[in-house]
């Protein structure tokens, strides 16, 4: 062969060389190639063979050279050769390509075959083992499938964009976060969800992700994102870059940090107002301590009073019973009768106290039963006043009542409202001086009952005494259980249960009971009851 450098460029200009030189050069090239190759006539006769360390037919070349491919080649390869020869008869300048599987050492392997027509009319085929390439392709497809599955089911929004800022992938979390379907955003600009108008510190969309950007760094970027409905939210963007055949791609992980921002603001607020918070909590603790001490004081006072109230009548009953027993045969009948009267009075006092305690227990457990009927509030009031006439006459107390002919009708439990009026008037008689009066007048009012939302028509009473009044800080406390006004000292007659029981009864009637002080002196108790109970039952 001509060794002149200008005449050795057979691969670039084969047309200027004799065909036999070109053919020889091609054969030399093929023999240096690690692939297996076969040479055929156009009739399918095998005329030459180059073995490969990776591919072989496990036959001696003498067994198939000179024979038709259908006799010398395995069946699967003979079918491919026949198809290739037919194809190349009319398309001599093209390449026929195919892949096939074969068994080698009990292992399935893959190969690709390429058939071309040579200058002298022969057909040559090259066969390359591509088992490793197939394995890598399968691994890549599995990895890609795994990545897509992970990306689709990730908790954060994942978006893939190309170097032209166009969205190429949009996972389910992104669809939920932004309100778009993936089909709505494919090939749309990333500015659709990360608008530059809301992120003025970035000049272009590429500044969000490009490694060439002056804003690029390893730390996530905090941006403002926009949903389909034009609402915006704070987000954190983390960027990853990877290369593909079509160019550089960018994976963006977008996380909604709205809650985190609020938590950070709250922490900042607490950190900068810690001293104020400590002072407030200290103040709250002081108030709670005072309330607890006050409650403890009132409970102790109640126990002292209730102990006294229980022991006094019991002591009187036992003492006079013992005295009567000793003097039964020596004392005159009048003296014995006096003993029995004291025993009777003490027993009734003890019974009243126990009934109050039982009423309180029933009210607290919700077991108090009421019989609501239409009654006259004025007649009820007069009945209670007549009951207490002896006490009033003894103290020279005058009761003034609005005694018009109008009936003061309402639906209530007669016995329980008598108990309420009895407690209110008894409370007044404890504190007002002798030779004074109690004024009672009727009122009509629309009010909102406790735990209700609508006004109802009501009728009621205002009972004013001319005593010392009630300390302002005790106006609500006197209705609490175990609590009396601070004007009541241990040993004073009364347990502090009457007004508490009265308010509970009135509340059960969907009414109101409260106390106030008159501007000219004395206390005023106001009782209001709904005219009809039907709306509440």
TrEMBL record:
Segments crossing the lipid bilayer: none
Reaction(s) the record says it catalyses: ATP + protein L-histidine = ADP + protein N-phospho-L-histidine
UniProt xrefs under InterPro entries: HATPase_C_sf, HATPase_dom, His_kinase_dom, HisK_dim/P_dom, HisK_dim/P_sf, PAS, PAS-like_dom_sf, PAS_4
CDD domains reported for this sequence: HATPase, HisKA, PAS
Keywords: Kinase, Phosphoprotein, Transferase, Two-component regulatory system
PROSITE patterns tied to this protein: HIS_KIN (PS50109), PAS (PS50112)
SMART domains: HATPase_c, HisKA, PAS
Residue ranges occupied by any Histidine kinase domain in the UniProt entry: 305-533
GO molecular function, one term: phosphorelay sensor kinase activity
EC number: 2.7.13.3
Stretches assigned to the PAS domain: 143-195
Record-linked SUPFAM superfamilies: ATPase domain of HSP90 chaperone/DNA topoisomerase II/histidine kinase, Homodimeric domain of signal transducing histidine kinase, PYP-like sensor domain (PAS domain)
Pfam families for this protein: HATPase_c, HisKA, PAS_4, PAS_9
Alphabetized NCBIfam families for the sequence: sensory_box (TIGR00229)
Protein name: histidine kinase
């Amino acid at each position: 062969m001509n060794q002149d450098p200008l005449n050795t460029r057979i691969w670039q200009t084969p047309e200027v060389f004799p065909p036999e030189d070109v053919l020889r050069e091609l054969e030399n090239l093929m023999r240096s190639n690690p692939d297996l190759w076969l040479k055929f006539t156009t009739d399918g006769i095998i005329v030459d063979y180059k073995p490969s360390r990776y591919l072989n037919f496990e036959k001696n070349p003498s067994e198939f050279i000179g024979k038709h491919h259908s006799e010398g080649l395995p069946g699967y390869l003979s079918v491919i050769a026949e198809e290739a020869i037919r194809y190349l008869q009319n398309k001599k300048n093209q390449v026929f390509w195919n892949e096939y599987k074969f068994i080698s050492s009990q292992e399935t392997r893959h190969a690709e075959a390429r058939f071309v027509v040579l200058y002298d009319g022969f057909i040559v085929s090259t066969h390359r083992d591509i088992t490793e390439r197939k394995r890598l392709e399968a691994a890549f497809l599995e990895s890609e499938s795994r990545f897509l599955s992970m990306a689709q089911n990730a908790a954060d929004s994942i978006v893939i964009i190309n170097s032209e800022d166009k969205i190429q992938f949009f996972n389910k979390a992104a669809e939920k976060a932004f309100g778009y379907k993936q089909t709505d955003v494919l090939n749309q600009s990333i500015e659709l969800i990360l608008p530059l108008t809301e992120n003025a510190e970035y000049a272009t969309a590429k500044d969000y992700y490009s490694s060439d950007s002056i804003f690029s760094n390893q730390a996530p970027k905090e941006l403002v994102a926009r949903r389909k409905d034009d609402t915006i939210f704070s987000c954190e963007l983390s960027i990853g870059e990877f290369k593909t055949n079509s160019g550089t791609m960018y994976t963006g992980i977008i996380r909604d940090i709205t809650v985190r921002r609020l938590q950070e603001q709250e922490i900042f607020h607490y950190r900068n107002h810690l001293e104020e918070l400590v002072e407030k909590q200290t103040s709250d603790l002081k108030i709670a301590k005072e309330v607890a001490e006050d409650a403890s004081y009132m409970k102790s006072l109640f126990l002292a009073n209730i102990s006294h109230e229980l022991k006094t009548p019991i002591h009187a009953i036992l003492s006079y019973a013992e005295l009567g027993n000793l003097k039964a045969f020596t004392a005159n009948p009048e003296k014995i009768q006096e003993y029995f009267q004291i025993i009777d009075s003490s027993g009734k006092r003890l019974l009243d106290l126990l009934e109050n305690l039982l009423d309180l227990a029933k009210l607290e457990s919700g077991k108090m039963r009421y019989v609501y009927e239409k009654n006259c509030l004025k007649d009820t009031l007069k009945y209670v006043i007549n009951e207490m006439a002896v006490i009033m006459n003894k103290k020279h107390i005058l009761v003034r009542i609005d005694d018009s002919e109008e009936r003061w009708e309402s639906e209530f439990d007669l016995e329980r409202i008598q108990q309420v009026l009895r407690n209110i008037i008894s409370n007044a008689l404890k504190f007002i001086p002798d030779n004074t009066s109690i004024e009672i007048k009727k009122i009509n009012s629309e009010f909102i009952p406790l735990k209700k939302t609508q006004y109802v028509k009501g009728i009621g009473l205002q009972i004013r005494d001319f005593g010392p009044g009630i300390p302002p800080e005790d106006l609500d406390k006197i209705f609490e259980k175990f609590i009396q006004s601070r004007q009541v000292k241990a040993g004073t007659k009364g347990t502090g249960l009457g007004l508490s029981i009265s308010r509970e009864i009135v509340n059960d009637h969907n009414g109101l009971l409260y106390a106030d002080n008159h501007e000219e002196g004395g206390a005023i108790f106001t009782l209001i009851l709904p005219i009809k109970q039907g709306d509440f039952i």
